[in-house]
Amino acid sequence: MTDSRTTAVLDRNGLDALVKVLGAQGRTVIGPTVRDGAVVLAELASADELPFGWGTQVEAGRYRLVPRADGAAFAHTSGPQSWKTFLHPQREKLWSADRAADGQLTVAEESAVRPSYAFLGVRPCDLRAIAIQDRVLAGGRYADSGYRERRTGAFLIAAECTEPGATCFCVSMGGGPAADAGFDLALTEVVDDAGHRFLVRAGSETGDDLLSGIPHHTADLVTRTSAREAVDGARDRMGRAMPPVSLRDLMGESLEADRWDEVAARCLTCGNCTMVCPTCFCTTTEEVTDLTGDHAERWQRWDSCFDLDFSHLHGGPVRSSPRSRYRQWLTHKLSTWYDQFDSSGCVGCGRCVTWCPVGIDITEEASALHDELAGRLRQQEQGESER
Predict the structure, then answer these.
(1) Are 327 and 258 in contact (CB under 8 A)?
(2) At what angle do helices 362-386 and 259-266 cross, to 10 degrees?
(3) 203-213 pLDDT tens trace
């Protein structure tokens, strides 16, 4: 964790002042709150709506809210949503068309007023996910104008991780519990004998300006040290890890592995993993009309490579089996994503593990593929030595 621009300390009142100032600027403040038995992302009017005193217990296919005695607000793991829900919404109208009585057709592009967002509590893995989606959806030849408009000017407040979950594996994906870039402000929650407070660092000029306008205290050595130790300790307590090999090469060398049959026997091809993934971006479009046929709309909605019709061409789907669809998802996420976007498509948040209804674990599958490949290479070496 490195200092960046202004560093200060906020108490709970200061955190609430931060939310109020952002709201007064006309921003829609989104952050974690408890609802329907989970920590979800929703609009906040006050910092009091944060999940103070709640943590989570997660495992493959399992998620539970648990009370915490220390009253921490950010000591929970990622819930079922990511910030993709707001920047790249699940369903969005693109245009509408109307036919007048004289037969004249008018087409109008959707021009809804989009909110100016402030995201409070963005985990470092999700900061990386937003950066990945920026490359996918806001860059290149075919930028998504809706995403780019929502993303431009969004104010990001990171919450560094001090309590990694059992399904977290960000360190093995090249990340970690510390927020190093991509934020306007970064919070590190500290709860100890000196009280409950938040070390806050400004990461942009906008963040610097906002921090100077809210009540705060000088960042003392005790708080700095406690915050650094908490984040460093979280780095050493990841619940899972990818095998320490080139995942890009592993996927390319495992296309015919037997392991795909084993995971396909369990996979429901429900698409939960793609819905909760903070980087999955695939969409499709659909047209709807009213009963008269005089009004039509085109909508963009999320799609999934687990959907049987996702790869449908004339004559049927290209990937008709669960084996082929799971393999497509995993090899794209960990390997061929590099060919398109110069990075992995996985940030190690663990959501796909937690929210898989049958508990399929992406780290376990990668390790099994690695073990199978290593065994096959050993057999080949033995065969060559015997000749």
Answers:
(1) no
(2) 160
(3) 999 999 999 99
